[in-house]
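Researcher: Please predict.
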Amino acid sequence: MLATDPNDQAMQDDLKESIRLSFIIQELFSAGGPDSKEVGYPLFDRLKALDEATNRRAAEYGLDNSVLEKPLPAGKDLLAADQAQVQYFITRKWKADRDQADPFVHTRLYAVVSRKDMEPKLFQLGDPRGILSSAEVEQVASLRSTRSERGAMPLVTVNATFAGLYEKLMAPLESELAGANTVFVVPDGQLFAVPFSLLQDKNGKLLEERMTIRLLTRPESILGIKADQKLAKDGQAVLAGGIDYANGAERGAPPLPGARREVEEVGALLNNDAYKTDLLTGTDVTEPALREKMEAATIAHLATHGAYASGRSGGVQGVDALWQSDVILSGSGDKRAMKRDASDGRLYAFELMLWDLSKLDLLVLSACETGRGEETFVGGLRGLPTAINIAGAKRSLLTLWPVDDAGTEQFMVRFYEHLIGGETYPQALRQTRLDAIAGQLPAAEDPLVWAAFVMFEN
């Protein structure tokens, strides 16, 4: 896209759609099953037609392979002097018998640190299972203990859950991060579940208080770090909350009083900022209605229940994690069909992946565990973050664990106040966290609330 005419919107759109379809096809065929054929083959035909069209246009521009195969700009070419990029990646050596409970000879976690005008530096951080396994097991086991209005509240402290992770993940990189006020982090595997803002250095200082942490879903996301960072003026938003989950005699998920207030308050703020807003509540939050409005919107905000599971974390064995990650809509009742059905009241990651959300600057899933996913060897994670990235939204604000209803409402309203005040998306999120830490948001001052929210930039 960098080599074409920026005014050629048709070609720009075709290139973006080709990338989106490529990601969908990759996910479908890596998962296998009937969906890969039923959904994947027609998409492959569309992708082939798009490639032929863009190749014809490339010829018109006189672009030969020497131009098209040039490497993309790297972090050292794009970062400012006070910025750094940390890309984590995991390597694995398999045993001959891959069906064993532990199929690896060894695994290794690496980090590559990039700074402006400097060659990247590689760090070996050891076995990621030793770094993350105890924290991950404790976190998952403890986050389903007692019911709150929007989710289960854990019984263990955050410090106990994530103690020591700074020393293992960030301390070895400190010399290369000196002078950086913003650090772009590209996680891999289970690192997507780490709340980096909560990590504390040896002096007890939170990483959140020291610098701005921006999470990227993939290394190429660094190419868009300077684009569309502030709330667009005169945009369009779709807000959904106060949902009726009942389906006949099935009551479905418990109601969320704070979710209805949350979307009404956010809607009022956006309306005052010249936004056009569509508010969906009650029985109107259906999959077809959401898709129509979200594919045309600048911002989409869903305040509801969310769920994440996989075969490795108490979910259904043999069912892809994209079918076990979802948000709950109107009329969902008590069942989880885990199949493509626009009327079942469940929006699964697999379904969301097929939507075209390329117009969305921000998708907020103000619900429990929407930032979780299953570790995979293709793309790092399978879950709602994967689906949103593939669907084309520029960024998403999600949660790593179940969150309190009242705290979520207060946190979200303050986040939009900062956005409307002119701060960038990352600045608004960080300042809202700092407001909570300072005690300005009483219902959200517990780290179990403010640290749950993470923004993935795509």
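Model: The chain has three domains: 9-68, 75-224, 236-457.
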